[in-house]
Amino acid sequence: MFPPTSAEAARDLVTRMVDEGLVATPEELSQIIRYLTATYADASDA
Q1: How far apart, in whole angstroms, are the C-alpha atoms of residue 44 and residue 22?
Q2: Among 25, 29, 38, which Cα is nearest to 11's?
Q3: For residue 36, what are the domain limits?
Q4: Is the entire prediction scored with pTM above 0.85?
Q5: Is 20 within a domain?
Q6: What is the dihedral of CA 34, 36, 42, 44, to 10 degrees?
Q7: Does the residue 30 lie in any domain?
Q8: 2 lies in some domain
Q9: Tens digit of pLDDT at every position of the chain (46 positions)
Q10: SS in 3 state form for 24-36?
Q11: How many structural domains comprise the chain?
């Protein structure tokens, strides 16, 4: 599902991205999840 509508959906999306070949450090993955959550999930609550 894109864009993610919750923090859980953002984590699931990033997990799928890793499964498809995304290479990133744990810190980078956390940053991606925070960005997706702040940009899309928080915005959907407004």
Answers
A1: 26
A2: 29
A3: 7-45
A4: no
A5: yes
A6: -170
A7: yes
A8: no
A9: 578 999 999 999 999 999 999 999 999 999 999 999 999 987 655 4
A10: CCHHHHHHHHHHH
A11: 1
- What pLDDT does residue 44 have? 55
Burial 7-32 (b: 16+ CB within 10 A, else e): eebbbebbeeeeeeeeeeeeeebeeb
**Residue 42 confidence (pLDDT):** 74
Tokens 């995304």, residue located: 22
What span, in angstroms and rounded, lies between the C-alpha atoms of 25 and 20?
A: 15
What's residue 46's pLDDT? Answer: 47
Q: What is the 3-state secondary structure (H, E, C) of 1-46?
A: CCCCCCHHHHHHHHHHHHHCCCCCCHHHHHHHHHHHHHHHHHHHHC
